[in-house]
Amino acid sequence: MRIAQIAPLTEAIPPKLYGGTERVISWLTEALVDLGHDVTLFASGDSHTSAKLESAWPRALRLDGAVRDANALHLTMLEQVRRRARDFDILHFHLDYYPFSLFMRQATPFVTTLHGRLDLPEHQHLFATFAAAPIVSISNAQRLPVPDAGWVRTIHHGLPERSLMPQPTKPTYFAFLGRISPEKAVDDAIRIAQRCGVPLKLAAKVDNVDREYFETTIRPLLRPPAVEYIGEISDGQKSDFLSGAACLLAPSAWPEPFGLVMIEAMACGCPVIAYKRGAALEIIEEGVTGFVVDDEAGAVAAVGRLAALSRRAIRKRFEARFTARRMAEDYLAVYRELIDAALGTFDAQRVSAAGKARRAKPTVVEP
Amino acid sequence: MRIAQIAPLTEAIPPKLYGGTERVISWLTEALVDLGHDVTLFASGDSHTSAKLESAWPRALRLDGAVRDANALHLTMLEQVRRRARDFDILHFHLDYYPFSLFMRQATPFVTTLHGRLDLPEHQHLFATFAAAPIVSISNAQRLPVPDAGWVRTIHHGLPERSLMPQPTKPTYFAFLGRISPEKAVDDAIRIAQRCGVPLKLAAKVDNVDREYFETTIRPLLRPPAVEYIGEISDGQKSDFLSGAACLLAPSAWPEPFGLVMIEAMACGCPVIAYKRGAALEIIEEGVTGFVVDDEAGAVAAVGRLAALSRRAIRKRFEARFTARRMAEDYLAVYRELIDAALGTFDAQRVSAAGKARRAKPTVVEP
Q1: Is residue A123 less than 8 Å (CB to CB) from chain B?
Q2: Are strands B2-6 and B90-93 parallel, antiparallel or unpaired?
Q3: What is the pLDDT of residues A284-323, one digit of tens each?
Q4: Which of A6, A77, A129 to mutate to test the interface with B (most CBs of B within 10 A)?
Q5: Residue A67 contacts B, CB cutoff 8 Å
Q6: What is the DSSP string of B79-128?
Q7: Cβ-contact A200, A246 below 8 angstroms
Q8: Are B222 and B229 in contact (CB under 8 A)?
Q9: In angstroms, rounded to a whole number, what is the distance separating the alpha carbons of residues B15 and B235?
């Protein structure tokens, strides 16, 4: 299949720094190439990929200080994709709603994965207007604010199967992994660990916008080694970090549409205790790969049940549910459905041109 | 003529506060209605217009604290315009490059007025890709960074003819009007007035981003009444303010693509002394409506030649060159050219469909 992946230019693919969306695009692209497909990746020129790279700008924009108007480059890239649309069987966008108007009016099937939250007031108006644009959710929870948008399937993210592996370490602490920011509720994690009398290690970045929050709210709570901040860790350090953790605490204060950190933990056999928000109920299998709880007290109670879980079983569930190959196969199924539907449309258009009945299809809007 | 004006949703049309682009769109729309055309204005619902208002969002976004993603609403509005494109003879956009891809691929002629500066590195790439999109410059100077873009004409802005009028006042001071920010070089204006021994009145807003600049750089230079800051003034106060000024000082430190304040001064018979940057040489007629100078010393020398200018003649030049009606008539000429060219294209397409030669036209790109 001739597949175009169209990525944001904000970060390289994969990203040089933090960037969940860009990591997922990289994993998906590599898995599709591994499965034998002819993949072209539209992305910044400093990306690294086994696919054909179509550079829409030499450098990732977050690191290119000269660029002030990212939209100018994203809309220029969409034009470049539009001109080459006929070279592909399917166009897969990761650019929010930007492609909708332009690609609803051409023949190559397209799909957009929405990577963010959708609960702003403008989203209602947006998705009511673009109900015909086919979109993939990264969790069912993500759909809740806009249930009537053009959802075609939920496809959970996946990691390369052997990128993170359980290590032979005795788990001795609780882990927190990700960003330190109010919506990640690190302070809840700290209190949970303290109530359980278990050391907590925080492997997290602090963005500039969250620097003050870190200094005023989180730093005063640090008590090494009981509550220890170890800074940001690389992908290469994650297997050790998560294998050494008795559980990952994910007490998110906002409805995260996915939560890569939860499947990274599972890849290392590490159970997850998460608050009942966003995608947690879909990702965690209660009593198998972790526990989904209502609050701090629920989390403390769940810690008492951790011993009943098998780290080997958790890794097996990761392999069954959250690999990049499974993600790629799910996307291929969607691509095939959209390609079949588009063929149907154009057959119907030919029939219509011959003066017979016409079938409406949602993915192609007449000019 | 059935004309659609498509405005940014950032401010109402006309704007409740500062907003040069939105004021120009309002003046143009009203002038087109006055000339008997059937005009539809796509804008925020709190706009006021004699045209038909198509509200794409109830409130101007700058005042709507709930909206975080203005692009979602601008791209939704473009889709709404696209669906109604056949209802119009011409679509006139004021949304930068946003409409290019979508409207190059449909039959109704369209044009975009670019209201901003075009000298960022991403603009080269953008306009090279969209060289076929027809655009209007607001000065010839604005074109310099991207000479090969799809320019169809320069149309200078215009004001409603009687919105500002000379008042019977004796001019006693120099005026500065606009925003206080580094690129407007208020400090130069202050030094010029002081070297001439003439009082300077600053009628200007201070944006939040420029508050520190104002406090640290400009406020220490204020010496009322010799150098007096009178705050932001309304349109209703401008006739008095500019009629009482011996000249307007416009020592801009950046290449402004137009400079409404210069024609506001002329409307009141007030001469302008401006630095040789951006559109100044096109707007000011040397020795008639003002002087274009290289620097502070040049400005001081020009003050000595102000007595040779006739305020009545300046007002006459305003009436001849910078009214909203003249602006509207210039746009109507562009609309007619684009409509004629589009008719040519579709004649050519019919010819082509019949198996004969095909003519390429820049404004419609084949799918």
Answers
A1: yes
A2: parallel
A3: 999 999 999 999 999 999 999 999 999 999 999 999 999 9
A4: A129
A5: yes
A6: HHHHHTGGG-SEEEE-STTTTHHHHTTSSS-EEEE--S---SHHHHHHHH
A7: no
A8: yes
A9: 12
Q: What is the DSSP letter of A340?
A: H
Cβ pair A78, B104 in contact under 8 A = no
User: What is d(CA B323, CA B218) in angstroms, rounded to the nearest whole number?
Assistant: 34
Half-sphere exposure of B110 (CA within 13 A, CB side): 32
Neighbours of B172 (CB within 10 A): 11
Put simply, the answer to whether B57 touches A120 (Cβ < 8 Å) is: no
User: pLDDT digit string (tens) for A123-153?
Assistant: 999 999 999 999 999 999 999 999 999 999 9
Euclidean distance between CA atoms A195 and A84, whole angstroms: 58
pTM for the model stands at 0.91
Cβ proximity of B97 and B115 under 8 Å: no
Kindly list the residues from chain A whose CB atom is less than 8 angstroms away from the CB atom of residue B67.
120-122
The token pair at B180 is 């206080």
Write the ipTM.
0.89
Distance CA A299, CA A310 (A): 18
Quickly tell me which residue has 């695009």 as its tokens.
Answer: A25
Cα separation, A68 vs A16, in Å, equals 20
List the one residue out of B141, B95, B92 whose CA is nearest residue B115.
Answer: B95
Residue B317 CA to residue B323 CA, distance in Å, equals: 10
